[in-house]
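Q: Entry one of two.
A:
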Amino acid sequence: MAKTNYSPTFPMFPGDAAAVTTSDTVNFTQPSVVFAGSGGTVRVLTAQGSDVTFNSVQLGAILPVQVLRVFASTTTATNMVRIF
């Protein structure tokens, strides 16, 4: 897995992405931003430890917070990708 280029001449972009596997107990290996491929509700555990539910998430939305987990219960959005 390649790391993000931290050179001052290039903007910082995430280095990788992966499909989201929702779980009520298992965290991601590192904080990630989540892209919702379809709309719905997304319940997350934020990198700071808050349990937050985003309602009415639109198709193609990117949640504006780093998350450690997307909960299986309550989440109705699908085709999610985590970006890290």
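Q: Entry two of two.
A:
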Amino acid sequence: DPDARVARCVAGLFNPILYPGMDARVEVSQEELGHLAGISRQRVNQALQTLQHARLLRAEYGAIVIEDLEGLRRYGA
């Protein structure tokens, strides 16, 4: 499931234990996420819209704001 792959990739980019001062905003492009997930940038865009609708994240220009880290980790499991 491409949506679940994008969710896991985004969750994997955020590690509050290794980087405790890091906020919930991860600067990453849709193209970079596509390379990580093994899918096209266009499909990443669709997945981000789905995940945003589920209130797991918020897509911004050049960044992703994580709203529910555990939800991203569990998505599609």
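A: Comment on entry two: The first helix runs from residue 2 to 13. Residues 9 and 37 are 7 Å apart (CA to CA).
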